[in-house]
Amino acid sequence: MRSETIYLDHNATTPVAPEVYEAMVPYLTREFFNPSSMYSEAQRPAHAMTKARSQVASLLGDIGADQIVFTGCATESNNHAVFGCMRANPKRRHVVTSAVEHPSVLEVCRAAEREGCEVTYLPVNGQGMLDIRDFVRSLRPDTLLVTLMHANNETGVLFPIEELSRITKETDPNIVFHTDATQTMGKLPIDLLGAYAHVDLLSFSGHKMYAPKGVGVLYIKRGTRIRPFLVGGHQENGRRAGTENVAGIVALGKACELAQAISAEDAARIHRLRDRLENSLEESIPCLQINGKQAPRMGNTTNLSCHYIEGEAILYQLSEQGICASSGSACTSGSLDPSHVLKAMQIPFTALHGSIRFSLGRYTTAEQIERVIAVFPGIVARLRRLSPYWNQETNAPKE
Ligand code: PMP
After folding, report:
1. CA-to-CA distance for 95 and 102, rounded, in angstroms?
2. Is any atom of ligand 1 closer than 6 Å to the C-beta of 75?
3. Cα dist from 26 to 31, 250, 256, 295, 317, whole Å
4. Which of 1, 12, 88, 91 makes the best surface tag, with the fewest CB within 10 Å?
5. What's residue 399's pLDDT?
């Protein structure tokens, strides 16, 4: 009997925090007015958006709030970043990215190639890390844009954005530097006036940080050459057309305020739980590989490969126990292709299909982690008994 759902898929989405929900509700009900309307009632949602913009700006290091553009999601922000730069500067036709970006960057880069751009996809090593020398060599006189993610959604591996953006600007201040910070916003400090001052564009999504789905941000540093992606309206100072998702924007502002108040202490607690999970599973499961373990990575994520079995089969069995996790990226589930991230890391074939991602969050408890520790090794052992590859490898008697 399932007593409780254990949600360990926070890199896919997070629940809306109760405080966030409370803050947004009035803008779905009595304060429903269009913030662009002329009557005085419409001033209230307009002011609420101004406040939300300052709350977001404050979490990014107290930057000027005029640089925050509200979008529909991180996917839109990433599309805006790449296509917006291409349209603003057609003379430069070279883009640098990595092989492990989220599809909302990778697919957009492929579309950019079809529109005549040349794209360098930087490889990563077995731990998911970039080689800085490769990066330096990739920059060219016609490079328009560098777009590299802050943390990988599948493995949690961090790219050194401070260093990469500094190198970019030292090489050529006219190259635009974009980072997809969807997995780090609200979890790691990002100071756009300090260590991250060389970043020109930064994307993230509300629903990865305890706000609802359907709202995102593109930070656009003042003076950056970029055109709008959505046109047909004056909203967001002419940078993103379409009536604003006021309730979502208010919610995102509140989520940023909450993240500022609780993130350091909470991040340490989550990190300890993740380490406890990894250490226990490593002890109890033979042939278990933790992908990206040697790299700097997010403290909430663990990506495990169980050699010789299928990730989907593990997910199914976990789900039977009320445990929600993910194999590869949630965005690619439905396809049985192995993860492009693990493939780029050259994870061996026997481990590629057996990968599981647990991503912890604000409401994850020690009891929930203990429950996973109690059931996961049994699931792996059962599936391996049924696996011809495992039996071949270990010469274990077949069932
Ligand atoms: N970038 C990264 C790194 C992500 O993890 C995600 C969501 N999985 C996105 C972009 C896209 O976010 P959204 O679905 O909110 O557009």
Report:
1. 16
2. yes
3. 6, 10, 19, 44, 41
4. 1
5. 47
Kindly indicate the confidence band of residue 163, based on its pLDDT and cuts at 50, 70 and 90: very high
Q: How far is the CA of 38 from the centre of ligand 1 (A)?
A: 35
Catalytic, 256? Answer no
Q: What is the rounded CA–CA span in Å between residue 328 and residue 301?
A: 12
Which atom of ligand 1 is found nearest the CA of 206?
15
Q: Is the CB of 205 under 6 A from ligand 1?
A: yes
Distance 11 CA to ligand 1 centre (A): 9
Probe residue for ligand 1, chosen from 152, 178, 182 as the CB with the greatest number of ligand atoms within 8 Å = 182
Cα(308) to centroid(ligand 1), Å: 29
- Determine the distance from the C-alpha atom of residue 106 to the mean position of all C-alpha atoms in its chain, rounded to a whole number: 14
pLDDT of residue 331: 46
Can you tell me which atom of ligand 1 is nearest the CA of 151?
Answer: 3
Query: What is the distance between the alpha carbons of residues 386 and 336, in angstroms, rounded to a whole number?
Result: 20
pLDDT digits (tens, 9 = 90+) for 17-64: 999 999 999 999 999 999 999 999 999 999 999 999 999 999 999 999
Q: How far apart are CA 394 and CA 4, in angstroms?
A: 36
Percent of the chain clearing pLDDT 90 (strictly above): 89
Phi and psi (nearest 5°) for 8? -125, 50
For residue 54, give the amino acid letter.
S
> What is the value of pTM for the model shown?
0.96
Q: What are the backbone angles phi and psi of residue 43, rounded to the nearest 5°? A: -65, -30
Containing 246, the helix (H) or strand (E) segment is helix 246-284
Domains of the chain are 6-13+263-397 (3.90.1150.10), 18-261 (3.40.640.10)
